[in-house]
Amino acid sequence: MPLDPGVARPYRAAMLAYAVKRLISLAISLLVASAVIFAVVEIAPGDPARFMLGINAQPDTVAALRAELGLDVPKWQRYLNWLGGMITGDFGTSYTYRTPVAQMVADRLWVSLPLALYALTLSTAIAFPAALIAAARRGRGPDVAVMGATQLGVAVPNFWFAMLLVLLFAINLGWFSAGGFPGWSDPLAALKALTLPAIALALPQAAILARVMRSSLIDVLGEDFIRTARAKGLSMRQALWRHGVRNALIPVLTILGLQFAFLLAGAIIIEQVFYLPGLGRLIFQAITQRDLVVVESVVMLLVFAVIMVNFAVDLAYAAVDPRLRRRA
Q1: What is the DSSP string of 29-95?
Q2: How many Cβ atoms sit within 10 Å of the Cβ of residue 96?
Q3: DSSP reduced 3-state for 100
Q4: Cut 0.70: pTM above it
């Protein structure tokens, strides 16, 4: 049902004010993050030009390569040039591969982004039913079983899950390949190659999400409106679905946003285990090769993705909880 015009106008105005406030905060956060990333990468020991030419390179050869790479200008000027390029979409050129960083990121993003979305989908599909069962059966057998499984999921590192999955499903059963990525020319083969990495990433995140949602649902089930719904004749399951889930979503949205950011930016070890050509593996290779412009640009892009996800979560907060709009 569409909103009444008298209600819709204040609603849109409040949402707009909230969005503008968050956008200003986002811009400031990005500027500070760019300065921190540039400073941290630049103070790391080692000269990229000397690393590329070797320790026996002549000083004049090193100086010529530094000039070619733009490393002979003051750091503040390099920062401004890099920041201006990032704003216009020019991420610079890789020192090692002499390839535009934007092209390298685009190629790797087609692995990391589907992997993150795949893992997040699996995590949500596992966590939501588990949390609902545990909350509805609090203190009983299903609750104990779910909490025990989530405790195990939180305690065990995802790379250990990954090695177990490779050992079982790739080596022993032969259902999946142990690593590599065939590309998206065959979507089914690509999804199959991403399945084990996605499961390895999803299981620990599903455990965290299930625990948070269970706690939130239990808090909501103790509220007066749930007791009123039960007094009107609704069963526990009906009250949970109709009134409990929506009111328990605020902390869950936070975890979902953080998990997507982590899955996109923090899958370096999993990509190494499965030899996936994603952003995490690109950062790892760039660090070992002292390819500073790749490290700076990719990390800044991941920070931008994290901040944008948090911005989307904040807007979802405002849509779910009207109190946030009134504060804005």
Answers
A1: HHHHHHHHHHHHHHTSSS-HHHHHH-TT--HHHHHHHHHHHTTTS-HHHHHHHHHHHHHHT---B-T
A2: 17
A3: strand
A4: yes
Residue 100's beta-bridge partner residues? 93
21 C-beta neighbours (distance < 10 Å), count: 13
- pLDDT tens-digit profile of 233-265? 666 666 666 666 666 667 777 777 777 777 776
Q: Give the distance between the most distant pair of CA atoms in the chain.
A: 86
Provide the pLDDT confidence category of residue 1 given band limits of 50, 70 and 90: very low
168, part of any domain = yes
CATH of the domain at 191: 1.10.3720.10
Give the residues across from 93 on adjacent strands. Answer: 100
Residue 50 backbone phi and psi in degrees, to 5: -70, -35
Q: Tell me if 69 is assigned to some domain.
A: no
Name the residue among 70, 79, 76 with its Cα closest to residue 34: 79
